[in-house]
Predict the 3D structure of the following.
Amino acid sequence: MKNRLRMKDRVFKGLLFAAALTILILTAGVVYVLIKNSLDAFQTYGFFGFIFNAEWDPRSDSEEYGAWSFIIGTLFTAFFALLLCIPFSLPVALFNGEYFKGRKISSVVGSVVDLLAGIPSIVYGLWGFYTLRPIVIQLGVNASGFGIFLASVVLAIMIIPYASSLSAEFLSMIPNTVKEGAYSLGATRAETIRHVSLPMASSGIVAAYILALGRALGETMAVTMLIGNTTNVPSSLRDTGNTMASVIANQFGEADGLKLSALIGIGLLLFVITAVINLIAKFIMKKLAAG
Amino acid sequence: MKKELLLFFVVCLVLFSCSGSKDKSKRSVGVTLSGAGATFPYPFYSIVFRDYMRKHPGVTINYGAIGSGGGIRSLRDKSVDFGASDAFLNEKEIASMGAEVVHIPTCMGGVALSYTLKGVDSLRLTGELVADIFMGEITRWSDPRIAAENPGISLPDIEITPVYRSDGSGTTFVFSDYMSKVSPKWNKVMGKGKALKWNTGLAAKGNPGVASVVQLTEGAIGYIGSEYAFTLQMPSAILKNKAGNYVKASLKTIAAAAETDLPDDMKLTLTDMPHPDAYPISLMTWLLVYRDQAYGGHSKQEAEVLVDLLNYIIGPEGQQLAEQVNFVPLPFQAVQKTQRLINRIHFAGERISAVPDPEIAVVEFLSTDTVTDHQRKVRYEKSITNER
């Protein structure tokens, strides 16, 4: 009997090990394929030459590919979306994680916000296209409505749930005794939040926002429908542009040769950027857990 | 334990029954052909293939609308039986294919310049104006050069938003081919290709993307496949053709573009054609097949079905379907020449005789040798329009 149990245990362990290993192999495989297929572009233009070149010319007799305009477009939209989402996600986090912690209303608000995360990207795109764009035109941002501004606003709404639920989680983790200490010293609720809760949860909140940023960087469908898809380095919110994910989605179908290699190179760069951002978030969270 | 055993049996049963039915369906399916390529003729291909499959229950045809470039690649890799493209292969591509490829035209279409301008029902443009608009030289609808082409029409003083394709596309190729022919500046600055480097305007993915951006943006103008513009009934610019006439894109004017001496291999562009009624941005779309069908494990039966399918597409039934989805049927002369091309397809030197005897006539229903070419043509055209 005991032997059989041990046997079962071993099989189970083996299965888990195999599953974990598969994930590792898959990730390594993805990286390998990205590197292998983008080598052509990196060799032609040089690693930094490819990154910092803003030229994207797909015509066969004057072919030249650089990732710069898409890198800027990606960072521009993602960071602006992050900025836009803070005034909405932070109050929601405080509402759920502090003021109404554990109450029914907070679980209702929490699930509705989480629902935002479940809406498919294409639906956000359609909403931005048909509903938000006319408003953006009326605001006088630009003539067609498409561009960095519209894409960022929709991205901001898409990442609110990621930023707010994790932040609320960290806020609710603060021990009550600490807050009670503040109250007993005569602090009001607002003062407690400002001087106790937010500083204590700050690294967790920062990590939450970094993860939300990572999500905004890789968003494809909604952005592609709203950003205007032009190949230029955007310099203001009124400009149209393109992001790394969106240019791949747009041009992959007919791409061939060097262009295909350049697109895969952009994919690799996007992979690296998101990986770095996730690592930073992990590092901050780890520091929080240790502290 | 018992429960688990029961579950096991149930799962087995389900699996067996699945595989059983699969086997059965496999047996009834005689031949499967697969193709890939252009998205432009996809609406036509999807209904013509479905129609063919309904009439030949043993045949399955799969078509992936992955773009002309992908179609050419897939044919070269021999992962499909036929490719599809809106542009005929260039020298480099022909050399890369390894063996002779036959271009079979299937239908025609045009590129319409659709616009959204409140209160402007009819808009005349010349090729040069279109080129200047898409290069960002003309930026407002009230530009005197546009007004000069449109006497009596009050054009609003708003910004022009040119809309183009963000993905590589045969539509872009044909559009830029025409632009290069009529505007020396375009030829120098923009060139022609499936994807270009644009300096102004907006891009959207696919015909649907461009169409919806144009429809919802006041002052926008974009180039889209004519069949798409016809289906959505979008207002489109009337263009000045080579003969100096202003023509609207329609089935008739696009067909007129092919009223010319057609080359025997049917590889031609139909932009800026001289016929007085010709719509200047017309195009032909092709299926690409290897001339020698004995390759990569192809069976003769597959080759026979393929040839029969090609005959069906260019025959009256297929062409009538093309018209139903707003593509332009091939003119009689083109059908004749294409028929000859199909007859050249062989299987390791053996002739593939599909349904009609290739020697006798152009298409099955016309197989009386006493009628003149003109009579055949009249009958052919009648058969397309009457059967609608």
